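Incident log, structure service

09:12 report received: a user says their structure output differs between two submissions of the same chain.
09:20 pulled the input from the user's history:
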Amino acid sequence: MPESHRRWRCGSDPRIAKLTASFGLSPTSCRQVPRVQLAPDSVFALAPLQRLLDDEWSLAMQRAERLAGGPLLSIAPCVSASRSLPASRPGSCSLHVAGNALSGAASCGPAQLPWPAASFDLVIVRHALDALPAECGLEAELVRVLAPGGHLLLSGFNRFSPWRLWMAGRAEPGRPVPRSAGIAQAADVLQARGLDVIGRDFLGGHWPRAAAHAHVRSSRWQAAWLLSARRQAVAMRVIPIAAARSRAQGVAALVPSSSGRQRA
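09:34 re-ran on a clean worker, output below:
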C-alpha cells in the first residue's frame, strides 16, 4: 500500500487543515497517525471462519453432553478462536496456536504438553494441526494425555474444499494458508496410535456464507471434517488362533472325567 494512503496529508489541503484546527489539532499531528491494519493477523480471525469454528464448537459440546464428565482439553487454531470451557468439567484447560508453539493455560511446544499421561477424559482440537507445521508431534501427545475410555474430537479442513481457494485469496501476503491433512490421513494416524475412530462428520457448507451451516455425514465438499475417536478403556491382547486352541486343549486335559479320574 502506498505511503500516501497510510496517513493523512493534512498540510496539503486547506480544507483538511481548517477542519483539524477546529478540533484543536495541528496539521503535523495527523501525520503521526499509525497505519490501520486492514487484515487480521490470522486467517482464522475472518468472520466466516469464526462462524465455522463456532459451529464446530457447538457440535463438539453436543457430543460432550453425551459423554462421561471429566477434565477437558481444548486446543484452538488462534487466540480469537478460543471458547469458554464448560463449568461442568472442572480441571479443564484451554490452549491455542501461537506461531509454531502453543499458548494459553501453558506455553509449550506441540510435542511437549505439560500434563501427565491420561489427564483428560475429553480432548477437542479444532484446526490446530492445520495451523501448525507438519510433523509437529502433537498427535502423539494428544493420545498420551487422553485417559483410557476418553474421547478425542479432531477437526480439519477438507483438502479439496472450495473454502481453501477462498482462504488463499484473503490471507495476508507472506502468511501461509492453513494446510489440510485430509480426513483419511488423519484417521489413519489416530488408528495407528491405538485410537478407534467411531464417527466422521462434515460441516461448513461448500462456500462461506453469513448463515450458520448444519453438519452432514456424507459430503466431503464441505469446508471441514470432524473425527470422533475413542481410546480403549482396557488394553486388549490378541492371542493367535493356534495358541488359543493349544490352551483350550490343555485346560480340557485337566478336567476330571465322569469316573473321577483325570484325563490323560
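09:41 both user submissions now match this output. Likely a transient worker issue. Closing.
09:42 reviewer note: Residues 47-65 form the longest helix (19 residues). The radius of gyration is 28 Å.
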